[in-house]
Design brief:
- This protein has about 120 residues and is mainly alpha-helical.
- It has one domain (about 30-115).
- The chain has helices spanning about 25-95, 100-105.
- The longest helix is centred in the middle third of the chain and has 69 residues, at about 25-95.
- It is rod-shaped and about 110 Å long.
- The termini are far apart.
- The relative contact order is 0.03.
Length: about 120
C-alpha cells in the first residue's frame, strides 16, 4: 500500500503524531490554539522538572565531593602529624643525646677510653 493509498487518512502508528482520540481534551472544546498552549505548558513543566532534578543531582555530587575532600585532608593531616612527631623526636635525639643513648647505639664506637 502506498502512502497516498490510505483510504481513511489516518496517520500511521507514529509516536510523534497524536490522534484526537488520544488527547485528554477535545479540540472543539478548547480550540487549536488552546490545545497548542496546553501542550507547550506541559512540555515547559517537564523541562523545568528535569532542570530541577539535574540541579539536585549536582548539589548531591558537590556534597559527596566536599565530604570526600574533607576526609582525604583529615587523613593526610593525621599522617603528616605522625611524621612530624617522629621527625621531631628523631631531631631531638640527634641534637641532645644522653649518655645512655650513646651507649645503647654504640655511637662512640668500640673505643670507650674517652669515657674514663
Amino acid at each position: 500500500m502506498k502512502p497516498t493509498d490510505n483510504p481513511t487518512n489516518k496517520v500511521a502508528d507514529n509516536p510523534y503524531h497524536v490522534s484526537h482520540a488520544d488527547l485528554p481534551f477535545s479540540p472543539e472544546e478548547t480550540g487549536a490554539l488552546g490545545a497548542l498552549k496546553q501542550e507547550v505548558d506541559e512540555l515547559v513543566k517537564l523541562e523545568l522538572t528535569a532542570e530541577q532534578m539535574l540541579g539536585q543531582e549536582v548539589d548531591l555530587a558537590k556534597a559527596y565531593i566536599q565530604e570526600d575532600a574533607h576526609s582525604i585532608w583529615s587523613d593526610l593531616k593525621l599522617g603528616l602529624y605522625e611524621w612530624e612527631l617522629i621527625t621531631g623526636d628523631w631531631l631531638l635525639r640527634a641534637a641532645d643525646p644522653t649518655r645512655v643513648d650513646w651507649q645503647l647505639h654504640h655511637w662512640w664506637g668500640d673505643d670507650e677510653t674517652h669515657l674514663h
